[in-house]
């Protein structure tokens, strides 16, 4: 006899009996997942979901090359980093080939948060200063020092407010922010520079090239160039958080900072790097890495182990072999065109934005007032789920639908998403 699957509420109750609900699940009635392959996920009841949401399985859920590489390496050698082994040399070499020259040192860790945390240590060590300038609505991770610079957390529900260690800067958002004209990047930069000058010195400026938790907001054009110059003029460092935007997702660029024609001093990596296996990294310059080498050993039990490095290498290989950056560009451009077409049809789509397969669209009550329609965004997310499509919502008003699927997403997948959004908005 085939065992009957447990009911969702039973599984949820079991989870919450041992895992606090603050470690949250999506949807009022969560999805009871069983397995996944490429851009599809399957629940315990055999239903197939199109994953238009998850950017961690970058090259596709359970990609066979990544899985097999991990399995083989796990069966052969996994150890801490205190020995010589080929995998770390091969991987860090391959990774650095994707960076401009000055960025030639890698620290391997196990998450985006650990990478952000280490980046904060590096900049404080290098500059002797403590305060970090960071964008409003930005998120950089879950450790104490990183929460302190993540406006999304310290200014959000349950947050403690801004501490003296952070200098919050307005998010350079050309849709909803203060400046929208052609030269908005310069106007936002001037505002940021003024704030930096008025502070008594910062160790670093950190930003995501497209602010994910802020609602997929691309930084206004030209912004980073001007802010980086001003930060460096006062001996501060510049950090690009590429945890969400890196590894070709943006289509035109392998890293988001390239879109703004800058080279950071430190880059933070995570999520897609291991396609779900927990690896993160800090990439920086010789000078910054050397200054950190003050005699106190830096050790990570798992960071840079042979299995993680082999998996990281397999991810880079698959991006290359399957031309996934190009796919992100082609399918992403098509996705944006189709969403823009829907925007012409429905007044409630106020803005469509993003690059490659890192896309967001805002739902508003009025195009002119930009009054956010949070309820409609929730409705679209939930109705899409009922139609077996996964997306999420975010932004300061939680009215932005986010779509950042595995890079193997196809135009047919886009057609399905668009068709269903059209059907939902038609009824709204
Ligand atoms: N930076 C950014 C931009 C992120 O989106 C996240 C995770 N959402 C992190 C850092 C932290 O990464 P992790 O969850 O792997 O610790």
UniProtKB/TrEMBL annotation:
It comes from the Bacteria. One of its GO terms (molecular function) is pyridoxal phosphate binding. The keyword Methyltransferase does not apply. The keyword Transferase applies. Keywords: Aminotransferase, Pyridoxal phosphate, Transferase. Its cofactor is pyridoxal 5'-phosphate. Belongs to the class-III pyridoxal-phosphate-dependent aminotransferase family. This is Aminotransferase class III-fold pyridoxal phosphate-dependent enzyme. It comes from Draconibacterium aestuarii.
